[in-house]
Amino acid sequence: MDISIIVPLLNEEESLPELESWIGRVMGEHNFKYELIFIDDGSTDQSWAVIEKLMEQNSNIIGIKFQRNYGKSAALDTGFRQAKGDVVITMDADLQDSPDEVPELYRMVMEDKYDLVSGWKKKRNDPLSKRLPSKIYNYLVRSLTKIRLHDFNCGLKAYRKAVVKSVVVHGDLHRYIPVLAKIAGFKRIGEKVVQHSARKYGVSKFGLGRARGMFDLLTLSFIGRFGKKPMHFFGTLGTLSFFMGFVILVYLSIAKLIYQEYGISDRPLFFFGILMLIIGSQLFLTGFLAEMIIRNNQDKSQYVIEKIVNASETSAT
């Protein structure tokens, strides 16, 4: 299969028929073998009913329905596990991402040998209240990660199949999939200027998630350096702290035994030395436990999926 197109959605009943028709036309014009994976992230409108109807008409559609709203990261992670195409394309369901970009994104991955190509909404049809925070956010992420992308949060991205099978997306990490890919060893990351349209139906899901996402970036920075070796971080800090406390207490002991100083236990330095010993021991123990968890942990992250339906199965019934 050439392409898997993953579309996470939440309450987008009006846009789905138009999006499916648009994607089908582009795929047909370029003779792509494709699958279209709609992931209903707990919609409260008629989105799933619309998906079921579309599946009756198009055997290339796979519908996945979450029992409740888990977030975009959960939807993308589930889609990545389901995808079978050589190139995996993600796009939003609100018609702001153009399916006409898909053939060139596919070419960049297959011919230019990119591992990941991110869309860049150079000309955005969004209000200033969305554009300004996005510019600040992208600048900070670009500066901290050294990944030269202008638009990390663009939903339109193309991935080599190996990339999506190598990353696990949870929490709000969908904004940092290029960072996750880099951590996993995929270094050929590029971008393409893409068309961005104004929202035609529904309301924006934009919120404060981008601001909270900076905490996720700090987490990723730590994971990138110490994710597989936490003892290198906690053990180093713990050893330094323990050594500092040990030196302080040795100094105070010598002062008492040799120089006959009294009242040492009343000095703030005495309590500081004990505190450093305790902190050092706790940091070392934290690193040890983290190492044990990493070596014994299996991917137990599960999302309760109410149903997965293939269009061919629907038509058969």
Describe what you observe in this structure.
This protein is of the alpha/beta class and 317 residues long. The chain folds into two domains: 3-226, Spore Coat Polysaccharide Biosynthesis Protein SpsA, Chain A, CATH 3.90.550; 230-296. It has helices at residues 16-29, 47-57, 72-82, 102-110, 128-145, 161-164, 177-183, 209-226, 230-257, 268-296, 311-316, and strands at 3-9, 34-40, 61-66, 87-90, 116-120, 157-160, 189-193, 305-310. It has an eight-stranded mixed sheet, sandwiched between helices. Helix 1 (16-29) links the parallel strand 1 (3-9) and strand 2. Helix 5 (128-145) runs parallel beside helix 8 (209-226).
Which tags fit this structure?
317 residues, eight-stranded mixed β-sheet, 11 helices, elongated
